[in-house]
Design a protein that fits this description.
It is built from 8 helices and 7 strands; from the N terminus they run E-H-E-H-E-H-E-H-E-E-H-E-H-H-H. By secondary structure, it is of the alpha/beta class. It has a single domain, classed as Spore Coat Polysaccharide Biosynthesis Protein SpsA, Chain A (Alpha-Beta Complex). The mean pLDDT is 96. It binds guanosine-5'-triphosphate and phosphoenolpyruvate. The site of phosphoenolpyruvate has 9 residues, from loops.
Length: 201
């Protein structure tokens, strides 16, 4: 894929985020924040720009330290993504606009780079179970048209996006459950996630 890639990353308000990880840690909002920071840090060297859609002031402040743009968005994942995609499209009519989930704490930049390079037009990366979506890419100049949610892999494929399946397991490893976290840990978690999980001494 040759066009510049600009990414929208949705980050839910931390005290409501990652509800399925209740019990994994005493500070779930801190873990959700760490996931987002590790995901975005891995994406930054790969793409031209990242804009995070979030209403959370802690996320805004932490991303400002990394030099990452944030903007508030409407309630709900797909509305937030459409809002961010419209912003990016207004800046460049020919770019590839992508949506990257913010819960990929083992993501390696080289794997994201390889998946993006393999895309030829509208494409998506299924999660490791094959049912969800971790990355959605528009065709150059095209609409993002996100259909995230239960069964999003099938929805994106039915809407004409091609599945990106290749040697990028960390891109497929979104973390929704304690079991997902174990799988991500085996790949190697990002620094902020390791710190969030470490017991305080
Ligand atoms: N900006 C924004 N992001 C969202 C919203 N809902 C989900 N997200 C983000 O979308 C991505 C995928 O969401 P999920 O994997 O369902 O994460 P979650 O909603 O925090 O987790 P659960 O509470 O367990 O469903 C994550 O990056 C979330 O932060 C929303 O309403 N607004
Ligand atoms: C919203 C999605 O993710 P999750 O299953 O992680 O909530 C999705 O895969 O479309």
């Amino acid at each position: 894929m040759r066009a510049d890639v600009d990414l929208v990353v949705p980050v839910k308000t931390l005290d409501r985020a990652k509800s399925r990880l209740r019990g994994v840690t005493a500070d779930r909002p801190a873990l959700a924040l760490a996931f987002a920071l590790d995901t975005i840090r891995a994406a930054l060297p790969v793409v031209r720009s990242v804009v995070a859609i979030t209403d959370d002031p802690v996320v805004v402040a932490e991303l400002a330290v990394l030099g990452v743009e944030t903007t508030p968005g409407p309630e709900g994942l797909n509305p937030a993504l459409r809002h961010g995609a419209a912003l990016l499209r207004s800046r460049d009519p020919r770019s590839v606009v992508g949506a990257l989930q913010a819960d990929l704490p083992a993501l390696r930049p080289e794997e994201l780079r390889a998946a993006i390079a393999a895309a030829d037009g509208r494409a998506f990366c299924p999660d490791r179970q094959g049912t969800g979506t971790t990355l959605l890419l528009s065709e150059p100049g095209g609409d993002l048209a996100p259909e995230f949610g239960v069964g999003s892999a099938a929805a994106h494929e039915a809407a004409g996006a091609r599945p990106l399946v290749g040697p990028w397991p960390t891109l497929r490893c979104d973390v929704d459950t304690a079991e997902d976290l174990d799988v991500a840990a085996a790949f190697g978690l990002g620094r902020r996630t390791r710190a969030a999980l470490a017991p305080v001494c």
